[in-house]
Specification:
Layout lengths: L1 H23 L26 H7 L3 H27 L2 H4 L2 H12 L3 H10 L3 H10 L6 H52 L6 H51 L11
Helix pairs in contact: 1-3, 3-8, 3-9, 5-6, 6-7, 7-8, 8-9
Length: 259
Amino acid sequence: MKRILLVVSLLALVGVSLPASRVFAQDAEPEAGALVTEDGEEAVASSGGGGFLAIVFKSGPLAFILWLSIFGAAGAAVYFAVDCAITVRPVRIIPQTLIDSVTEAMAEGDVLKALQSCDDEPGALANVLSAGFSHVEEGYDVIEEAISTSADLETEKLMQKLTWLSVVGNLAPMLGLLGTVQGMIAAFETLGSGTPDIGLLAGNISQALFTTAAGLTVAVPCVAFYYIFRNSANTIVLRMEALTMEMIKDLRHVEVVED
């Protein structure tokens, strides 16, 4: 499953990168006019262009590393979003088949059968119920405490998956800002050279703006998906806890009989 998610993430990243490169890449043509410095000398105008791809590959090693980091963040964002979309679903966390089998077993007063049902269909709800059924001989108070502890643990596991989306959403704009600072430093260095290369100056400014845009493009969907999945996870967890308490209420009067 992890390999499938990785392949999907890479394909999505390539699909996003190709349209972006077609949008941003524009053939730069030399302009007829030229800038004149204060000394009356004509400023050097670079005939180079290349658009977005040139900015990525020709902006220096530091800028290239920044772009690799931003593309990596984009790939990670797609991966974690797909993973959360698969994981944070009621059918995965609280499967109806498990609810039906445990409810049927509890109606018969057969705790061992209910415990076996949890073993046959592992998951968050199964782990919580198993924690309660494993302490059935110790009293209802111990059962409630075990279930509460297990539910907190399963909730934390679920939220840790969502946290990675938040991490990417926070890192991406920082990477974009770092690229902006690097591009502006290079731009001022070009201006301070006395006779600035107009093409190089334009490339430095483009580097600054493109990295900011790329960082925000990655961060905005990450933040949106994080809150969507977090709200969905909270709803599912609350429902799981309610179902668990409903299914174990008969344990007050259940007597375990071993063959």
